[in-house]
Design a protein that fits this description.
By secondary structure, this protein is of the alpha+beta class. It is built from 6 helices and 4 strands. It folds into 2 domains: 8-56, Orthogonal Bundle (Arc Repressor Mutant, subunit A), CATH 1.10.10.10; 68-140, 2-Layer Sandwich (Alpha-Beta Plaits).
């Protein structure tokens, strides 16, 4: 992986893109008083260095009918079954995130569902995966913090 030093302009470009990945380079250039070509070159360099990895789309899951979030801790029969269980979880579209973890759980997942009844069926399908000994579920009452910018600014300050 290429290593590049990020300057203030790079930080500002990333700040704008984190807020909205669909902002045209011309709009970024107008806000930062630099050319669109400069924005393009800098973004390309950050992509090549692996700092920018694609872009993402933020959906309003509540408006789409998926307001229920649960976190499921998975205990495995054997840790050697981890990959098989992860493969099975990938086949469950409502499991949106899965982490291999240390501590209490072997795997920790985020599940999106329409309601409690739907969540129950998803959790039961996780329980039925070969290799899963048992699960523990926590229901999210509210996503209170979801702010990538604060971490990004902290990282930038550490780099300076």
């Amino acid at each position: 992986m290429n290593s590049i030093k990020l300057d203030d302009v790079d930080h500002q470009i990333l700040d704008i893109l984190i807020e909205n990945t669909r902002v045209p380079f011309t709009d970024i250039s107008k806000r930062l008083l630099i050319s669109a070509g400069t924005v393009h070159v800098r973004v390309k360099k950050m992509e090549e260095a692996g700092i920018i990895k694609g872009s993402s789309l933020n959906l309003d899951y509540v408006k789409l009918g998926y307001s229920f979030i649960a976190y499921v801790g998975i205990f495995l029969d054997k840790t050697s079954q981890t990959q098989n269980v992860l493969d099975a979880l990938t086949a469950i579209p409502f499991v949106t995130v899965a982490h291999i973890t240390t501590g209490k759980f072997n795997i920790f997942c985020k599940v999106r569902a329409r309601d409690t009844s739907h969540a129950k069926s998803i959790i039961f399908s996780i329980d039925d995966v070969d290799g899963v000994a048992r699960t523990e579920t926590m229901i999210s009452m509210e996503e209170s913090i979801n702010d990538k910018r604060r971490l990004m600014h902290h990282i930038f300050n550490e780099l300076d």
